[in-house]
Amino acid sequence: MAALARSVLRYSARHEAAASESFAEHVVHGLSDSPKWLSAKYFYDVAGSDLFEQITELPEYYPTRTELSILNRYAGEMAGYIPLSAALVEFGTGSTKKARILIEAAPQLATYVPVDISAEFLAREAAAVRRDIPWIAVLPAAADFTRDFDLPAQIRSRPRVGFFPGSTIGNFEPDDAAEFLRQAGRILGAGATMIVGVDLIKDEAVLNAAYDDAAGVTARFNLNVLARMNRELGGDFDLASFRHRAFYNAANHRIEMHLESLKAQSATVAGHSFEFGKSETIHTENSYKYTVESFRALAGAAGWRPMAVWTDESDYFSVHALKL
Ligand code: AVJ
Asked: Which of 297, 302, 81 is closest to 184 using CA atoms?
């Protein structure tokens, strides 16, 4: 998997060179840039993962519940794209809830390979899946799927089905999303299938509310990256002097999240000092939105044949089946 290892290095951030950096190096790199930025993947420490779970329960945050409803309704049809004795490889398993729906609907699956950065989290989740679905072999792979990881040797002879739910693909720049799909194809191999969840372009008010909820949970999620820098990198950010900003950038088909400095100030982190002007922002996330057609075109350009797509009644979210 050395070729994969090298090429996946490119996915993790908006700036390729940042991909192999440590958190500290990344922070120094991103905050030295103009405009300042940080990769969205650093949201997910323990506190951030817990806040994200809370986001998925918010009335305004439609993606999780809409994707779950699509999976619940159409998992039987999706199973038609899963070969006999296949291995299901989930890229970035934050929760096994979605994979379980697919697994229950596809008894021809032999193996489930959840890939996640936290070995401890994976071990717990794997044990729970083994307990609840005893007929499937669970082979967790502890890895940052945006970096270097090896598929377990035991699945080399099995057909592979990639699973990338949650519209996590929306965090990639479109070029990087295509590159990710190309490389996922290389790792999964000839004849592979990919099932991908993709959030759709829709009314701006719906999009804006989903990323700027009334209860302020998304604000806490965004601000947590400052708290994380304070905890892990000896930072001294004053969380009260930054505010959450989120808005749909229609020209670029993406939600942008920023942390806006409420005053001129400086902060020290990882042994470096950074100056912030009043209203200056740190760009912390892009969440790209697609149309069914624009995502199918992107997947096609990355070498995948779009086979089927399932959406909800409001066309808020889409789940795509792709074949190599
Ligand atoms: C996990 C990337 C799908 O973009 O909707 C939620 C992350 N950010 N609220 C998204 C997120 C703010 C989420 N993804």
From this structure: 302
CA dihedral of 243, 247, 249, 250, whole degrees rounded to 10: -170
Q: How far apart are CA 139 and CA 126, in angstroms?
A: 8
**Is the distance from CB of 309 to CB of 291 less than 8 angstroms?**
no
Give 157-222 as a DSSP string: TS-EEEEE-TTGGGGS-HHHHHHHHHHHHHHH-TT-EEEEEEEB---HHHHHHHTS-TT-HHHHHH
224 Cβ inside 6 Å of ligand 1: no
Q: How far is the CA of 287 from the centre of ligand 1 (A)?
A: 7
Nearest CA to ligand 1 atom 13: 168
Distances (CA, A) of 93 to 97, 161, 209: 9, 14, 26
The string of pLDDT tens digits covering residues 193-213 is 999 999 999 999 999 999 999
Nearest Cα neighbor of 15 from 142, 118, 146 is 146
Share of the chain above pLDDT 70, in %: 93
| Nearest residue to 41 (alpha-carbon basis) of 118, 119, 144, 142 | 144
**Dist CA 96 CA 77 (whole Å):** 20
Q: Which contacts of 124-128 are long-range, i.e. CB under 8 A and separated by 24 or more positions?
A: 125/93, 125/95, 125/96, 128/96
**Ligand 1 binding pocket mutation candidate from 57, 285, 288, 319 (most atoms within 8 A of CB):** 285
Is pLDDT at 314 greater than 60 in this prediction?
yes
